Amino acid sequence: MPKGGLEPPRPCEHMTLNHARLPISPLRHNFNACKIKFLFGFVNNFFLILWVQVTILYVNKLRKNRMKVITKNRKAEHSYFIASRYEAGIVLAGSEVKSLRQGKASIQDSYAEVKNGEMFLYSMYIAPYDKSSHFNHEPRRTRKLLMHRHEINRLETKVKEKGYTLIPTQVYFSDNGKVKIEIALVKGKRKYDKREDIAKRDADRELKRESSLKHKF
Q: I want to staple 132 with a disulfide (CB 3.0 to 4.6 A). Which of 90, 95, 96, 151 is the partner?
């Protein structure tokens, strides 16, 4: 017994609190359940969005791979500033489609115009189909283009402005096998603009060559 007083009472084993055996509050239990549901929903939505984006990229890549280019206007970007591009359908004869499948076409000197609310393509060359005898087509005939009304109206307004014109930049088969024309709204470049483009292209080519040499060594 300690000096000057009684011994302090000792806690009995049945009086000690065992925190591991205490009941969990219902409010805390509901909060934890809501937090788990939120995290599960967030992860689920994240993977769903990721899957949709990957699917869209795959489909676009598949369509691009299935698109077969027939011919291009390689001088377009050198001779013009391209303001915008549009996809148009085209009205063709059966012999013209067969000739396009053989790649026998050119759009180097062709252009498009709006007349009476409709779009037409001029001077596009499609070679006569060699296996067609009686019902062959005229190689450079005027051909009607198929576009939405609001696109035609917008292009007609732009062409009336000074310096703008419409030219085809490429002809291709779409993923569903139809012939499509890419029409570009362009403005002609001046001589010094062309010289600047050539100088820039040469500088880029030189930088690429130097960087490739550095990677080799």
A: 95
Yes or no: say if 136 and 129 are a contact pair by the CB < 8 Å rule. yes
**Which tens digits make up the pLDDT trace of 24-44?**
555 555 556 666 666 767 677
- 210 in any annotated domain: no
- CA distances 145 to 64, 69, 129, 134, 158, Å, are 22, 18, 21, 25, 18
The Cα–Cα gap between 34 and 28 comes to 10
Which of 153, 177, 186 lies closest to 70, judged by CA?
A: 177
Is the same domain home to 118 and 179?
A: yes
Higher pLDDT, 90 or 45: 90
The torsion angles phi and psi of 88, rounded to 5 degrees, stand at: -135, 145
In angstroms, the CA 209 to CA 217 distance is 13
The pLDDT value given to residue 133: 66
Assess contact for 189 and 80: CB atoms under 8 A.
yes
In sequence order, the 6+-apart residues with CB closer than 8 A to the CB of 203 are none
* Spatial CA neighbour of 182 closest among 138, 148, 145, 142: 145
Higher per-residue pLDDT: 59 or 73: 73
Q: Which one is predicted more confidently, 192 or 144?
A: 144
pTM to 2 decimal places? 0.59
Show Cβ contacts of residue 143 under 8 Å, excluding neighbours closer than 6 positions: 90, 91, 92, 120, 121, 124
